[in-house]
Amino acid sequence: MKRSPSQLCGLAVPYWLLVLLLLGAPAGARAQTVLRGVVTDAKTKEKLPFVSVSVPQAAIGTTTGEDGRFVLQVPAQYTSIAFTYLGYRTVVKTFVAGQAQDLNVQLAPNAALLGEVVVTGSKGPRYKNKDNPAVALIRQVIEHKEQNRPESYNYVEYEKYEKMTFSFSNLSDKFKDRKVFRNYQFLFKKQDSLAAGGVNILPIYIEEKLAREYYRKDPEARKTIELGNKQVEFDKHFIDNEGLSTYFNRMYQDIDIYANNVALLGNQLLSPIANNAPTFYQFYISDTLRQHVPQLVELSFFPRNKGDMLFAGKLYVTLDGNYAVQQANLSVDKRINLNFVKSLNANLQFAENPDKRYHLSKSFLGIDFGLSDKGSGFYGERTVSFDKYRVDQPGPAGVYEGPARVPVDSLAQRAPNFWQLNRPDSLTQNERAIYRNVDTLQTIKSFQRTLTLFTFLLSGYKSFGPFEVGPSNTFYSFNPVEGFRLRVGGRTTPELSKRIYFETYSAYGFKDEKWKYFLSSTYALNGKSIYTFPQNFIRASFQRDTRIPGQELEFVQEDNFLLSFKRGINDRYLYNDVYRLDYIHEFSNHFSYALGFRKLQQSPAGGLYFRNVVGDRPNFVTTLSTSELSVLLRWAPKEKFYQGKLYRSPIIGPYPIFTVRLGTGIKGFLGGEYNYRNLAANATKRFYFSQLGHADVTLEGGYVAGQVPFPLLDVHRANQTYSYQLNSYNLMNFLEFSSDHYASLFIDQNFNGFFFNKLPLIKALKLRETASLKLLYGGIRAENDPVLHPELYQFLRDAQGQPTAFALGRMPYAEASVGIANIFKLIRLDIVKRLTYLNNPNVSEWGLRGRFKVDF
């Protein structure tokens, strides 16, 4: 699978999102009143955090943040709002329905509660779980979790409406009035300074989705039938709209309060009602809403350690025997180890079912991003409404069969008033304007020039309509065989054809004075882009280029300039002529197969040589030729992609990925010199450990049947660059080990700052701990041992005659590392220790390796 240039450097934030960060009507019948304000102590004037702000009649509410601020949308039929806080008098305010307004409230201490104060020390009583009524209540919530989940019903069906909006936030007047924005003033919007995002915002994205979702318990099945999808459309030359939607949906996932861990921004935060929540959270009963039916208890919760990846907020729990969460308000402490997040607020509201249990009826998630707390940033909101809810009623016949998701038919006609009729709430004036303003923005030439520049700098490609040139990080590189190397290439886009795609490059080495080149032609059999799931295409290609043995990439070798810097002796290269024919077919259940034919001619270059013994005389071989048929099977259940215009990459999730490949060499066919069979199997999975982060685990094994020279064995993936490579052995030398049978284990553990977050001073740096272990067992059978069979290619030796290439013995190759990640929010440094085979020549026992990665 092709990787985008950003991924080759370890980027997890796509380039178009960085582009956006760097660029810095009357309401309907169901309109809402937007209330904002600050709650303070009437005497001290201090801002009060986690004050309950609610409309009891509507059973909706929120809490103030750490800065005492709140924002709440109230249905137009209500005109009063209550502010409650433990130890303070409750305040009820009235407001004018349908008009956005400020409500700055001062709460006075409750004299009845504070009649006598006895000072007994500088610290309050120590928090304990034992005999704590709040903990007893949360344990009841945990005990009743399964019955309150939708999966407790035999059937569930509902309509789901999603709306996402994004804006540049907290823009200063000075920024807004810059000359470059002279033609863009119509885009900027003024809002109350208390609102998330500050005074000046620049709305730039809106997306709406409507779907019907079905669930069946036995046999378990889930089905999503998309009914509509609408989003702003950016110029496809610069930004891939489908990829933009995919990434935003990854950032703003559904929050399942009943799950043990809540997926958020690619991380896992422990739910306040997880099975082990009382170990990591402190709980307090802060209020009782007696006027609500059924009666609710307000539970406030906080992380025991402020730096842990945990929520803070309030839960409203029913006292009707179900102990269900009727509402949840979630936020995060600014000190937790999340990158670029200035503030986060989530609100979940639950509605009653006929059986008196509750289902999620509406959720809101708002996140304010920025490089600093005070600077400009990026603010996004996602609102999800659940309507037409039915439980324990089977869906239509056959609805549970087939693929889990049925996409909306892009050719289907939608009535002009489709969205007006199907939105649960009307769009605000600003939201309606986004569709129109983005279209206008893209007609401004200065904006197009700016976007063109940033797209090239961050993606590495310059588009010329049907063809784009790049990637830029391969234009220049160097190595000991080619010396100074220049390369230029590119690929066609869907503008040329949606069925036929071409890719090419030419390169020249000034030391070996040889031209290298590549050309491929791909035909999409399903009429879709070859990068769109599910793939179904046939590709023919030819490549003449250099390669390090054991470092083969799937189609085109990317010459990243940063990887030109290598340690030790690294002049053992191959000149390859590769003819390939590949057929790839993916299915909607994420099973795929690939059939391939490859004719490969390998010639040694630099310090590499092919030498055997014929009779009693040494013989140097100039070319090794093979003809190979292959089949690859891959299954990646529930895999999701970040989809670009001309590339795609998987989004790592909790589900395993299995791959099996069988290659068969055919002697005598188109010049093939050997018969062999090469079987390889791979399984990889990410394991989540809640507060302890996650581990990426890969198991791999291979077997080569037949007598072949060492270039046709499994030459294990070594790394002599200074970058930390996740799937290579970072202290193994190129060509150091080869096997005809092997098994390997890779474990890469990311603790997400679990230990650093508890260290004074260190925790402010938001560093993250990493550790890894790599084991490789393998060997060579007697039939492939060049010592026993001198007619095979001999293992390499240095100028002094000392061997530099080996077979593994009974002892495995092993290396381990510990590291610090998230340095300046983008660097990972690992100290790597080689544990075995330390007596081999030119090996490094220790090494410092780095890796760039931008992520949340």
The overall average pLDDT, rounded, is 84
Helix content: under 10%
CATH topology of the largest domain: Porin
Q: How does CATH name the architecture of the largest domain? A: Beta Barrel
Number of strands: 47
- How would you sum up the global shape? elongated
Q: Pick out the low-confidence regions.
A: 1-30, 112-122, 553-558
Pfam family, one: CarbopepD_reg_2
Organism: Hymenobacter coccineus
Signal peptide: 1-31
Protein name: Carboxypeptidase-like regulatory domain-containing protein
Describe this structure in words.
With 856 residues, the protein is mainly beta. The protein folds into three domains: 33-110, Carboxypeptidase-like, regulatory domain (Immunoglobulin-like); 138-412 and 425-442, no CATH class; 545-852, Porin (Beta Barrel). 9% of the residues lie in helices and 43% in strands. It is built from ten helices and 47 strands. The chain has an 18-stranded antiparallel beta sheet that branches. Strands 9, 10, 11, 12, 15, 16, 17, 18, 19, 20, 21 and 22 form a twelve-stranded mixed beta sheet that branches. Strands 1, 4, 7 and 8 form a four-stranded mixed beta sheet that branches. Strand 20 (358-370) and strand 21 (377-391) form a beta hairpin. Helix 2 (15-22) packs across helix 10 (445-459). The longest helix has 15 residues, at 445-459. It is elongated and about 100 Å long. The two termini are 24 Å apart. Residues 1-30, 112-122 and 553-558 have low confidence and may be disordered. Residues 1-31 form the signal peptide. This is Carboxypeptidase-like regulatory domain-containing protein. It comes from Hymenobacter coccineus.
